[in-house]
Amino acid sequence: MKNFLAGLGLGFGLGVLFAPMRGDDVREMIAVRASELTDQARDTYQQVRDKAQGTIAAVTGKTQATGTEG
């Protein structure tokens, strides 16, 4: 697995170096993609967390807190 990731990183690096795009365009594209991936990861985390809380509530027989309790 380490070798695969090392090869992936090397390939990415070489691809960026020899890409037909300008450096500014590549950096902007990377920044946009990183932002999209961050948003996707945050959404996935929230979905998993909500599902886990619902499952825990169902197993324990407790209701979920809505955040509006006094």
List the helices and strands and how they pair.
Blueprint: H1 2-18, H2 23-60
For the structure shown, list the relevant keywords.
70 residues; mainly alpha; 2 helices
Task: Please give a structural write-up.
It is a single chain. The chain is mostly helical. It has a domain at 21-60. The protein has helices at residues 2-18, 23-60. The longest helix has 38 residues, at 23-60. The mean pLDDT is 84.
Alpha-beta classification? mainly alpha
How many β-strand stretches? 0
Task: Assign an overall shape.
Answer: elongated
Strand content: under 5%
List SSEs in N-to-C order.
Answer: HH
Summarize the structure.
The chain is mainly α and 70 residues long. Helices cover 79% and strands 0% of the residues.
